[in-house]
Amino acid sequence: MTKIANPANTIDIIKKYDFNFQKKFGQNFLIDTHVLDKICSESGLGKNDLAIEIGPGIGALTQYLAVTAKAVVSVEIDKNLLPILGDTLKDYKNIELINADFLKVDLEKLIDECIQKYGEFDNIRIIANLPYYITTPIIMNVLESHTHIDSITVMIQKEVADRMQAAPGSKNYGALSLAVQYYSDPYVVAFVPQNCFIPRPKVGSSVIRLDIYKDKPIKTVNEKLMFQIIRAGFNQRRKTLVNSLINFEGLQFSKNKIIHALSLLGKSEKIRGEALSLDEFAQLAEYLQE
Ligand code: SAM
């Protein structure tokens, strides 16, 4: 296939259409074909899968997805990119292009429409070079929607990927690590330097793959309460967990009750949120609810 993404082709396409990069949409286009190969192969995408892409840009990654998967659905917010995509991707008949804000898309409906058109898929995988200004909302919306998605493989800021993968006690460990690890098993697949993009982003990037659990290894009786406790626990990192929980809005536990719940966990009243694992937060929520 003639690759859309290499530096010379990307510049030609941009000139041909007089395209102006929009900073507000986080437009940094990939121009390294090795990185595109890597994203596609590490995502596990197979020939009977559906790929859902957020932000195709000029189609650099979309093309790889189209030759690998049964079908691709790509959601792009910038209407100026639609005529360009219509041209760069014209040879591929298994791509559905949608002009919309991904955060407003009904994902279940999108998938149902693809199943009606293409038949059942073995796996449904989200694969994208994400716009960095909304990385976390996009990923958390998908995870919290409980939509049937098998995996998410995305390029994101390196520091956000590090936070998603972090373990208790590390400086990157926080509410985001716990939220992502509750729903999925994350691992960083590759680091991608700034010179692989046009224009160059200010930050380094990583490709992370999240394999979404069908059966969550951590069970909780009250998911909402557990996440409130997690948010409280990392709201002010220097405070003890007891003090963070007493002062956090929406929670109404007495100091004694919190100390008692921690003692049931075998933890001191001086402990901070960053020392607890996901399993321990789940148990703490259970003890506090009693
Ligand atoms: N996939 C292309 C590539 O790798 O070269 C472009 C990646 S660029 C980092 C992010 C893309 O997401 C841009 O095309 C941008 O216009 C699009 N985008 C930004 N916000 C979006 C949103 N809310 N919904 C859908 N697409 C969005």
UniProtKB/TrEMBL annotation:
Role, per record: Specifically dimethylates two adjacent adenosines (A1518 and A1519) in the loop of a conserved hairpin near the 3'-end of 16S rRNA in the 30S particle. May play a critical role in biogenesis of 30S subunits.
GO molecular function: 16S rRNA (adenine(1518)-N(6)/adenine(1519)-N(6))-dimethyltransferase activity; RNA binding
Swiss-Prot/TrEMBL keywords: Cytoplasm, Methyltransferase, RNA-binding, rRNA processing, S-adenosyl-L-methionine, Transferase
InterPro entries: KsgA/Erm, rRNA_Ade_diMease-like_C, rRNA_Ade_Mease_Trfase_CS, rRNA_Ade_methylase_Trfase_N, rRNA_adenine_dimethylase, SAM-dependent_MTases_sf
GO cellular component terms, semicolon-separated: cytosol
One Pfam family of this chain: RrnaAD
PROSITE patterns reported for this sequence: RRNA_A_DIMETH, SAM_RNA_A_N6_MT
Entry-linked HAMAP family: 16SrRNA_methyltr_A (MF_00607)
The protein's name in its UniProt record: Ribosomal RNA small subunit methyltransferase A
Stretches assigned to the Ribosomal RNA adenine methylase transferase N-terminal domain: 35-214
Subcellular location(s) per record: Cytoplasm
Binding site for S-adenosyl-L-methionine: N28, L30, G55, E76, D101, N129
UniProt similarity note: Belongs to the class I-like SAM-binding methyltransferase superfamily. rRNA adenine N(6)-methyltransferase family. RsmA subfamily.
Enzyme class, spelled out: transferase
UniProt organism field: Lachnoanaerobaculum saburreum F0468
Reaction(s) the record says it catalyses: adenosine(1518)/adenosine(1519) in 16S rRNA + 4 S-adenosyl-L-methionine = N(6)-dimethyladenosine(1518)/N(6)-dimethyladenosine(1519) in 16S rRNA + 4 S-adenosyl-L-homocysteine + 4 H(+)
Cross-referenced CDD domains: AdoMet_MTases
PANTHER family: DIMETHYLADENOSINE TRANSFERASE, DIMETHYLADENOSINE TRANSFERASE-RELATED
Catalytic activity, EC: 2.1.1.182
